[in-house]
What does this fold into?
Amino acid sequence: MSTLSKSLRRTAALLLALPLLAAGQAVADGPVVSTSWLAERLGDERIRVVEVSVEPGRFERGHIPGAVNFRWHTDLVDPVRRDIASPEAFSKLVSEAGIDADTTVVLYGDHNNWFAAWGAWIFDLYGHDNVVLLDGGRDKWQRENREMSRRPARHAATDYQLDVAKPELRARLADVLEVVEGEHRAALLDIRSPAEFEGRIFAPPGIQELAIRAGHIPGAKNVPWDRVVRDDGTFRDTEELRRLYADIGIDGSDPVIVYCRIGERSAHSWFVLSRILGYEARQYDGSWTEWGNAVGVPIDNPAGTVWGGT
Amino acid sequence: MIFPALRVLVPVALVIALVAIGLRIGDALGIGPDPAFTLLAGALFGVLLQRSRFCFYCILRELFEDRDSRASYGLLVALAVGSLGYVAMFGSWVADPGAGRLPPDAHIGPVSWVLVVAGLAFGIGMTLSGSCISAHLYRLGEGSVLSPFALVGALAGFVLGFASWDHLYVETISRAPTEWLPARFGYGGAVLLQLAVLGALALLLMRRLPARPARDAAAWRLRAVLDAVFVRRWPAWVGGAGVGMLGFIAYFRTSPLGVTAELGSRARTLAERLDLIPGRLAGLDGFSGCATVVIDALMTENGVFILALVAGSLAAAIGAGAFRPRRQPLHRYPLALLGGVLMGWGAMVALGCTVGVLLSGISAFALSGWVFGAAVVAGVWVSLAVRNRVRMRLSARHPAG
It folds into this structure.
């Protein structure tokens, strides 16, 4: 083959690749992406945008163009076993959304990405590392008057089989009990409001009381989830976040176990600890609704409230 | 009689005020996803109801007593237009209706004998008070002096509903099926079925159509057009088509039409403060419908909607010269109050009224909408018959009075 035809072919290949280069990298270079980053890449089939919102009906009335809808209440959990979605169910869900091993998954949702962060935790547990959160979530996208679509998107289905690959990202009741009883070293982080942490109330105002004890897991530290975000819902700078946790003695030297009431807001703080700060962090999804009700496990209740008592 | 200039100035001032409020509350939090739209939709609903006298009780009374079915066609048109709009959205939101998932917050409720009794009570309450709840709201805009009594009665009825809810829910409603027609027949089948039923009713009602009035030759002169738009009652089908369209557009943008969520929520909040009802009501918050919650906020989405409804109706009524507060015979005040109580109880246990359950429910292909609607019609029919008998007996006893 002549050198001329070789160089011609190389030029052609470069020309063909040009649009891809111009469209920018499909792979994000951090755990969060900005609204403008995503806006420039809408329609890129290497990226799949997934909405996970707390409130049903949000997605249908407008979503980021091309996004698919994962329902936390039925798609990402197993309501019968009170467990995360099973490998079969989750594999089916992501395959129908046209996601495969090379897809960059961008998650977003309402309420400061609470359930979207749960989604990120599930993807990570199942070994799909290429998953990021849209900084500021749905609210910021809408506040910036960016494009919203009401049309359902259809993507060619894949066959992507997943299984739990990182069980170490999840803590069970027994794991937490071992920490409380001093058999294992780990920091415990409670991200609920101070009133819940101190046992003054059993559940946030307006939410039904699902635990019969108030208070927190002995030894836990309290950093409410909203301390990690700015007013516009975006995550604070990495250095600020590092200092925030270092102030209460969480600096990554020990593993962290994070929990809340039902395990969804704690996924948001887990995301900060694990994905942004790179600490060894586990999410205790049983959270206070399991611990507060479990028989034979100790609590710390500074307020001394007794459920149903006078 | 109102000074003629006011008939133009007051409605214009009201419209300007609504637009000004709409511009200001656009970003307000806690008033639903789109407060300005909610305000506009409420005002438009008020105008539509007032201009076409879209009142469920009047429709049925004219049908049963005057043997005139013209207004009934407004309701049939509203349901047909609403259904077609809803199904267009359902198709894109729930691709497979048989998959066991219901469309988000559509008013599809459980069907049981409780719904039937609620509809009967609601229908009887309509006869006693002279209107359904949505019509009492637009009648406020016409200066009705009975409507405040009916609405206060409805608040009390809601409290009775909450007090009876736990028992009805545990024994009956929790076991009742929630039937969504497309889940059983597919979208095509459900549309065919529903339009066939509406078509059959339309054919049946033709027997009670009065002779066609002679056409007005001067109908297209400007003055006559203004008169037709602003003063005379709109043809039933115009109001019906408007209500049907507003129904699915509201569902698309914010939430299905309903007028009792705010009344019920205020009643629930008050009753709970007074320790009349338990703080938690079993299963209530899990239903889509005119759900009631305990509220602390000064203003809510449904609150904006019904206030705008009254303002829209007031503007339309003043423009039409239909704002006429009139003293009523003394016995009608307690009857309005009692009718309100029956309607409040019915609307609470049925999770909505003639707008929330009948209109938004049937538009969403809910069996609950049809069952409630049939019970309301039966309730009005029976109570009208009883009322006429009582009247006959009274006039026989007092032939002079």
Observations:
- Chain B has a mean pLDDT of 91.
- Chain B has one domain: 4-210+217-397.
- The two ends of chain B are 29 Å apart (CA to CA).
